[in-house]
Amino acid sequence: MRHAWAIGNCTEEVLRTSAQYGVKDLIVYSGPGSTTVPGTTRPLGKPRAEYQDYLALRRRIESYGLRIEGVEGGFSLYPEYRDIMFGGPRRDELIEGVIGELRDMARAGIRIWGYQWMPVSVWRGAHARLRGGARGTAYDHSEYEDAPHYYGKRVDEEHMWKCLEYWLKAVTPVAEEEGIRIGIHPDDPPVPERGGVPGLFRSFAAYKRYLDICPSDHNAIEFCQGTFSEMAGEDIYEMVKYFTERRKVLFVHFRNVSGRVPKFTEEFINTGYVDMYRVMNVYRDAGYDGVFMDDHCPLLTDDAEFPGNVGGYRSRLFAQGYIQGLVESVAKQKAGKPGQARTARRRAQRDQAQPGTSSASLRPGMGQGGGPTPEFLRMAAQLGAHEVIVNTPSLPARNGRWELPDLVNLRIGVENYGLKLAAIENTPIHFRDHIVTGGPERDRQIENMIFTIRNIARAGIPYYTYSWKYPRIYRTAPVEIRGGAVATAFDADLAKAWPEVVETPIDEAAAWRHLEYWIKAITPVAEEEGIRLGVHPNDPPVPVVCGVAQPIRSFAAYKRLLDIYPSEANAILLCQGSCSQMAGEDIYEMIRYFAERKKILYVHFRNVSGQVPKFHEEFVNTGYVDMYRAMRTYFEAGYDGFFIDDHVPHTYNDTEYGHRARAFANGYIQSLIDAVTKGGANA
């Protein structure tokens, strides 16, 4: 099983974005009867597209390292082709023209054509309000019951079936001869009629009838799961299984809905009534080997328009991340070791049976440095984050302290978007530089940090997390990764040229003394105030950076840190990326160890290639860490917390914050959460 998306205009932006996010297979809105040059918005300027037009489209896509899976759309959308659907006087002439273009498309190496049989197109009403104020398309049949007849009279349904049969018997032999597959999209909305025109493809039975007209491997279905899910009284899982087992699904529009005919709303991919994890398993078990693509994504605030279908770049990349994670997860579950599912089930049963324990509650979160900005909060709410963290918020620094009213206002500002401010991550470095280095102002800074942490707790913020670094995270020159995206990197050989940042180098023993002094001073305060503190590992996790020892660079070091002051208040921020960079360590063992001991406040869920002395950061689903295995380890170890994206790559035309990359990472994270929690529960 693979992932794809559908595009209407093969611009440099969409093709580069596709390559960077690993969307190798494309469906292009085009095909016989379309009025634009294939893969563009330019008018065709001639009766039909020809071989060279389709060849140019395929070559352009392949020049970016991508593949064209097929085309979608075409003649049925345009009035001049209605004689084919209604049996008008020009039917044979029009069919001959469509067949000629179909042959040219096939000669150009494009092997799938999905099209519609909807002479009145798709009908929708006003947008519905979704999660966090996003908007989704919706339909309410009561608004259209008195709609005038589209063609001035009611069209006979059996007559339309006869016209369909005529068409199929003409075109299917051509598809067989050319070695291509064609299929019809269901009516959307799948109601008996719209404006006096029957909707032939509105039920399970109707599709069985359609396939019986020309029983051929080349006559199939454009399986819009969203539209099939809208069909009144049908079982989406049964339909997926039936058509997939019979190898009748060309490709899948993988979307979700709330409700069915006569009233429904299109949803985020992981909301709505369809269990997307369950249905992905049905495709897998039934032997599906085609592509899934996002479809009719919600409209997010602040998003940029994507060239093709509903939803902008952030919305569609969130859906892409979810699809890619789900495809990966169900494939790995299928290939899991014998007994693995039973072990997960027994673990879940054990946790539920024992007082004080429970099966893991894994949740998506998001974070931002300096903010939180309204744009970040809107996106976090719309993408389904539960908790957010703010890294070094831009609060007034009064004498090296943060005051309670400012922190309360920060929390309330987050809550106004329906979110929880779960943590503040880091204070300004000038609040704590002497604490880290053992400088002359250490005790004064600790006094101020005690004041600040008391205020964080009293403001209703449960966690304060921090990095034990001076003065910052270090990286060498960035590197290019998949599709030309840019990621941060570290090479210890190059770092040798960095100057020292302290007058007197701080060795390992001194670094541990300073850390122990701090933890013993601050942890009793955290216990008193009911707040938990978590330490981020050193990044890069090397012995020394610029004359300053980096004590938290290994599994053993983290254990040592927790032993300084054994307390629930003394915990860790598990930056999975930084832990994965640690030379010679097993990331899965570390996750299990700290999760089972309830020492993880939250997780930076990112991936890397390589370990110290040389590594670079990656997309969340590339790199050496098996992220599905990592997520399953959190679940099995009983972790009860949230995950945030972290250090996302810089991709084409994204913002400085990386809204598109973060939307993709969050979709991926949420799919893994669904897969491991539902997979464990259902094992």
In short:
With 683 residues, the chain is of the alpha/beta class. 39% of the residues lie in helices and 18% in strands. Residues 337-359 have low confidence and may be disordered.
Description of the molecule:
The protein has 683 residues and is of the alpha/beta class. Helices cover 39% and strands 18% of the residues. The chain has 22 helices and 29 strands. Helix 2 runs parallel beside helix 4 (91-107), helix 4 (91-107) packs parallel to helix 5 (157-178) and helix 21 (627-636) packs across helix 22 (659-682).
Rounded Rg? 28 Å
Range of strand content: 15-25%
Sheet/helix structural class: alpha/beta
**Largest sheet, strands/sense/barrel:** 8 strands, parallel, barrel
The helical percent reads 25-40%
Q: Rough shape? A: elongated
Query: Which strand order spans the largest sheet, edge to edge or round the barrel?
Result: 1-2-3-4-8-11-12-15
Low-confidence stretches: 337-359
- Compute the average pLDDT: 93
Overall number of strands: 29
Span of the ends, CA to CA: 22 Å
Q: Helix segment count?
A: 22
Annotate the secondary structure layout:
Elements (H helix, E strand, L loop, with lengths): L1 E6 L4 H9 L4 E5 L21 H12 L4 E6 L9 H5 L4 H17 L4 E5 L11 E2 L5 E2 L1 E3 L16 H22 L2 E5 L7 E2 L2 E2 L5 H10 L5 E6 H6 L5 H10 L3 E5 L3 E4 L2 E4 L9 H10 L5 E3 L19 H22 L5 H14 L9 E7 L4 H9 L4 E5 L12 H12 L4 E6 L7 H5 L4 H17 L4 E5 L8 E5 L5 E6 H4 L12 H22 L2 E5 L7 E2 L2 E2 L5 H10 L5 E6 H6 L5 H10 L3 E5 L3 E2 L4 E4 L9 H10 L5 E3 L14 H24 L1
Parallel strand pairs: 1-2, 1-15, 2-3, 3-4, 4-8, 8-11, 11-12, 12-15, 16-17, 16-29, 17-18, 18-19, 19-22, 22-25, 25-26, 26-29
Antiparallel strand pairs: 5-6, 7-14, 9-10, 13-14, 20-21, 21-28, 23-24, 27-28
